[in-house]
Amino acid sequence: MRLSLPSKGRLAEESLSFLAACGLSVYKPNPRQYEAVIPALPGLTVLFQRPGDIVVSVRDGSVDFGITGIDVIEERRGENGALLVLHDALGFGACALTLAIPESWEEVQSVGDLARQSGLLGRPLRVATKYPNLVGCFLQKRGISNTLISAEGTLEAAPAIGYADLIADLVSSGQTLHDNRLRPLPDGIIQPSQAALIANTGTLQSNPEALAAARFLLETIEAHLRANENLAIFANIRGDSAEAIAERIFDQHTIGGLQGPTISRMITRNHDPNWYDVHIVVRRSQLFQAVNELRAIGGSGVVVAPIAYIFEEETPRYKAMLAALADTDHPADKVHPNGGSHAIS
């Protein structure tokens, strides 16, 4: 089995860091080689390719799994359902394919204004982009007359040089656009993007080992992402019984735990039978509220610790993958919460 990762750039570095944080460190003995292994997944070879080539390789079946951006997935995935998005929100590589215009176009404040700009110029707008499929579809749906100009290098200079009127490119902070006297259109976001895990549909349907690897990857990644959002809290609380302490906890807002608190009797030096140890899991964003609630019900000696993994009884994304594979006519047509298509959530 083969897994392709980005070969260079920020997405490459973040992919390796993410996998390492999941406990899936990539071992590459020779930095000049384009192959590596993941010791935690014997039998899986890691390859390194350009982000767009990863999509093509997975789609064509020469590679079984890949991690790359949603932008190139949607641009190159094809229409035959050969590519399946297993996880569309790995939490890194965030950006958006966005229309950007010269700052001098002061009258253009929205995509709708581009039609008037085209009329003023007396011709279709020339749009430089590396994403002709996504950009062409976006502009066509909005009735914007255009000529797409394919470009592989730096796009930001295209309007200044004069071979394009505007560009459609990936934007993260927007600083590069500003430096080149361009500005993004507020409603010109064509495709939000971040890193995603993809697989070849046919391989998953025909190869039990690949299906097992997909489950392992999904469960490990999901357990890590879920844990990353939470913290473990331990506290000492005095009470008449574990049940009485639980009632005090349930009267609060943030310290109920995943299903409830774990409460056990403490062995104290003075043999006081009324001290208990409480263990709960809270969302990282609610940490200080949780600590204050514990203190309010008598908690002391509060200890906070990171969590490596939180495994559910069964990973929802794995169940969604099986459902998609069972739908052989349209194996990838699943809708994710943000309203897009062709992704499992």
The CATH class of the largest domain is identified as Alpha Beta
Helices and strands: which structural class? alpha/beta
Uncertain segments are 330-345
What number of domains? 3
Task: Tell me the Rg in angstroms.
Answer: 26 Å
The average pLDDT value, as a whole number, equals: 92
CATH architectural type of the largest domain: 3-Layer(aba) Sandwich
Determine the strand fraction and express it as a percent band.
25-35%
* Terminal CA distance: 24 Å
- Strand elements, count: 15
Provide an overview of this structure.
There is one protein chain. The protein is α/β, with parallel strands linked by helices and 345 residues long. It has three domains: 2-93 and 194-226 and 313-326, Periplasmic binding protein-like II (D-Maltodextrin-Binding Protein, domain 2, 3-Layer(aba) Sandwich); 95-192, 3-Layer(aba) Sandwich (D-Maltodextrin-Binding Protein, domain 2); 230-306, Alpha-Beta Plaits (2-Layer Sandwich). The chain contains twelve helices and 15 strands. The chain has helices at residues 10-21, 51-60, 70-76, 113-121, 132-141, 158-161, 175-179, 201-206, 208-228, 242-250, 287-296, 316-326; strands at residues 2-6, 35-37, 45-49, 65-69, 83-87, 95-102, 125-129, 146-150, 166-171, 182-193, 195-200, 230-238, 262-265, 275-283, 300-306. It has a six-stranded mixed beta sheet with strand order 2-3-1-4-11-5, with helices on both faces. The longest helix is centred in the middle third of the chain and has 21 residues, at 208-228. The two termini are 24 Å apart.
